[in-house]
Write a structure and sequence with these properties.
Helices cover 38% and strands 21% of the residues. The chain is an alpha/beta fold. Helix 3 runs antiparallel to helix 4 and helix 7 packs across helix 8. The protein starts with 7 loop residues before the first strand and ends in a 12-residue tail after the last strand.
Length: 317
């Protein structure tokens, strides 16, 4: 089995407060190891010290101090091994904000690995250190993001990393993951088999699997609002008010429940709130035994079982 076939969704940006860009610092001592994961945000890893071994799709990548690693939206990656002195900056950005910063929709980051010149490395480390683990620094993060892309695009390694068909496919898929392979290849005056072949070689996973991930990530962004049940926490209460407003303004409600657990009181409360509104019930965790009894939650409404882990059921949804 390919090393890139099992991965989970873990968002990059902090969840405690709204942010469109962030810089994390990572050391093995403080953070341990995250599982193989993917997210909608494009990400750079800047190796400030030590060495690291990454699994990126089906590839193994060795990185040392001065290296820059890049992951496009939906690219699964994992830190497989690290020296005790590893220190890296993880820099990520909302894809829409990235397009605004770079003033282009075709500036999608592809899998990247290059070694920086000393001058560039020192400048990037200084910028990253000035914004690390801080909120309210979007402008500084935007300048760092633009600098990272400028350096990369002036290095031959960036251009040669991906086949032109893969680069163009990524640029389209990140913004329009519902496009079919036939339509995509026709846009590039190529064949579906050629687009698929180069994509698999460059990304380390099949085209259809990557597209399914992006569809899942877009779905997560669509339905991932705060709860709408009562709370005493003032910050959560603000989120609840925003969620109720989103519900009132919606044309269609996707009511997502955990199909691997018995329905919670909050599920029944939300079901009462959506009575009379067009609703699709989405039962998540279809890869696990179904015990929720979700069929009785909103009888007569469409029910779709999906798995955020495997992508099962997304096409039906």
């Amino acid at each position: 089995m390919s090393t890139g076939t099992r991965a989970i969704h873990q968002g990059f940006l902090p969840t405690c407060e709204p942010s469109r860009a962030y810089v994390w610092k990572y050391t093995p001592v403080n953070w341990g190891r995250r599982p193989r994961h993917f997210h909608i945000e494009p990400e750079f890893n800047l190796i400030a010290s030590g060495r690291a071994t990454f699994g990126i799709g089906s590839r193994i990548v060795e990185a040392v101090r001065g290296d820059l690693i890049g992951f496009p939206p939906g690219q699964d990656h994992v830190l497989l091994d690290a020296s005790p002195d590893l220190f890296l900056f993880a820099i990520g950005m909302d894809p829409g904000f990235s397009s605004d910063v770079l003033r282009a929709e075709d500036a999608t980051l592809g899998p990247l690995h290059l070694h920086l010149a000393s001058r560039d490395f020192e400048a990037l480390v200084a910028r990253a250190a000035a914004t690390v683990d801080r909120s309210g620094v979007e402008q500084a993060c935007a300048e760092l993001w633009e600098n990272l892309h400028w350096i990369g695009r002036n290095r031959v390694a960036w251009i040669n990393t991906l086949h032109v068909l893969t680069r163009r496919s990524l640029s389209v898929l990140v913004h329009s993951p519902w496009i079919g392979l036939d339509d995509l290849s026709a846009r590039f005056h190529s064949s579906p088999s050629e687009v698929s072949r180069h994509f698999h070689q460059d990304m380390g996973l099949p085209f259809v699997q990557y597209r399914a991930r992006l569809r899942l990530l877009h779905l997560v962004r669509l339905v991932d609002t705060a709860g709408i049940t009562e709370t005493r926490d003032p910050v959560e209460r603000l989120g609840v008010e925003r969620s109720r407003g989103a519900l009132a303004a919606s044309d269609l409600v996707l009511l997502v429940v955990d199909d691997s657990e018995v329905l919670h009181p909050e599920d029944w409360a939300i079901a009462g709130l959506v009575q009379g509104r067009p609703t699709i019930v989405v039962a998540n965790k279809a890869d696990l035994p179904a015990v929720s009894g979700v069929e009785g939650l909103l009888p007569g409404r469409p029910l779709v079982r999906v798995s955020a882990l495997t992508g099962q059921g997304l096409a039906d949804l």
